[in-house]
Design brief:
Elements: H1 2-7, H2 11-30, H3 36-45, H4 49-56, H5 60-69, H6 81-87, H7 92-100
Length: about 100
């Protein structure tokens, strides 16, 4: 191992490895794009129950029934998921996870 350092033969492979790593690290650190997952969850949490039903290909009645079974208070399918969660004093993420677990008919 010491001979690599004495002769300097390790310099070229280490330099190439650092350049290869920089080719991925530099563009990622300069990118202004953020993680899209939080924006997706925020959009789903603010969606109406009827819209979520269409997107998930599940009847809104099934989503409503699943939420009611988990203790959420649902008045209509025109309510937003965040409204349902806040009206039930439950976290919005819990309501979203309940909706996402409903199976298609």
């Amino acid at each position: 191992m010491k001979t690599y350092f004495r002769r300097g033969t390790i310099i070229a492979p280490v330099t190439l490895a650092l350049l290869a790593a920089a080719a991925f690290i530099v563009p990622a650190s300069l990118s202004t794009h953020s993680n899209p997952v939080p924006a997706l969850f925020q959009t789903l949490e603010n969606a109406r129950l009827a819209d979520l039903g269409r997107v998930l290909d599940v009847p809104a009645d099934s989503l409503s029934a699943a939420l009611k079974q988990q203790g959420f208070v649902v008045h209509s399918s025109d309510q937003r998921l965040a409204e349902i969660a806040s009206g039930s004093d439950r976290p919005t993420m819990a309501a979203l996870m309940t909706v996402l677990e409903v199976k298609r008919p």
